[in-house]
Amino acid sequence: MGxxxxxxxxxxxxxxxxxxxxxxxxLELTRSGLHAQPMLAFVERRKNRLWFIxxxxxxxxxxxxxxxxxxxxxxxxxxxxxxxxALRVVEDRRRMGRYWNAAVTAWLPEGLxxxxxxxxxxxxVDAEVWMSGVGLTxxxxxxxxxxxxxxxxxxxxxxxxxxx
Length: 164
Description:
By secondary structure, the protein is α+β, with helices and mostly antiparallel strands.
């Protein structure tokens, strides 16, 4: 699992942990011409899937069609990642109910029983993950502080995780 870097299994574990902790990232259909959309992600580790609750009336959902290449871009502290995979629409109210929480309610205030809601499932294929030891907050502070001499942002060696 460690092509182009090292620690594939550990990298995958850190990635799923980070997504489960923060959930928010940007999802896009890579060939649609649409901008990436902020989404809450729910991890299904056993099958290397990400799930998203979405509204059917959005350009993103309408553009998925029978499936499409997608990317989920995620950042949490010093971890940055781009995950690639196939995206499809899935009708599964039971699964949607398992994922429903206060954060989803804040994004979709019409509630779980809104008939316009659906699920998007991303079958993840691979990911590039960068982990910085510098700290993005520290680097940003150095850039903003007058007279500072930033040492440069060392985002580390990209690690590749194959997710299928």
